[in-house]
Amino acid sequence: MSAGGVPRGNTPKDQLPFIRRNATLLAELPEPGEHWTAEIIPDELANQLTGLENKQIVTFVDEVTQSKWKKPRNLWKTDLDAYEQIHDVLEGKDRDGLLPCGHSAINNERGVDGISCGVCDEVHARDEIDHNRGEVA
Ligand SMILES: [Zn+2]
After folding, report:
1. What digits encode the pLDDT tens for the residues 26-36?
2. From the candidate CATH numbers 2.60.40, 1.20.1250, 3.90.470, 1.10.10, the one assigned to the domain spanning 15-133
3. What is the 119 CA–ligand 1 centroid distance (Å)?
4. The model's pTM
């Protein structure tokens, strides 16, 4: 794949639902244009880089070696369209709000009974959302 990126229209169907479910976590990804290794992102993201690549949220750039490292590491970059989508979701600009409050950023907080919104912090019952759009895993 060239540096020009993947043409729009080829975005995997599961990308947007995934971004909505994980927007607050995905916001930790570095800005597009930066090349980075897994060690600078949260483990929760680093553990699923292959999945993120399949959803075209990150792109593999190259392998890098440094004498202090035992083995080569992968260099990644954040996909521009996905990055914009993550921030649109977090800023409440995602027009088909997934949640009853009209936002789409799902905050998977532990210890919260239901799903809390990453934009306004309102907590919604899980079934309320499943019936709404059917996109929540
Ligand atoms: Zn909200």
Report:
1. 999 999 999 99
2. 1.10.10
3. 5
4. 0.74
